[in-house]
Fold:
Amino acid sequence: MPGWALLDASGRAAGSFIGFELRTMFVPYGRIVSLDAYERLLSIETCIGAKHSSLRRDLEWDRLAVRDAFDPTSGSSLGTTLPLGFVVMYGSDYLLGLSTFAPAEFALRIRLWACRP
Structure:
């Protein structure tokens, strides 16, 4: 079965999936796909988001543009290893990847931190 058909069939069997890109600096089998492939990934109906870990802001911005041009209201999210707002300076970068998988819970975490004394 060709790759895109396999992803589509797997997503349908699971109900949904989140795409994941990693460079080989994180795992030996890591891979960052082309921007065209990233767009094709987001076009799969059962793909509900994507996590991108390249440590390259240019790639992150490119993927945000693809996501926004594709369907900014789709609920698809982009988790990046480097935060676009320099949160890394404050030691929170490790949470960004995790927040991709539970955006509602991390939004709650942010609201609760805003209420602290």
About this structure: The mean pLDDT is 76.
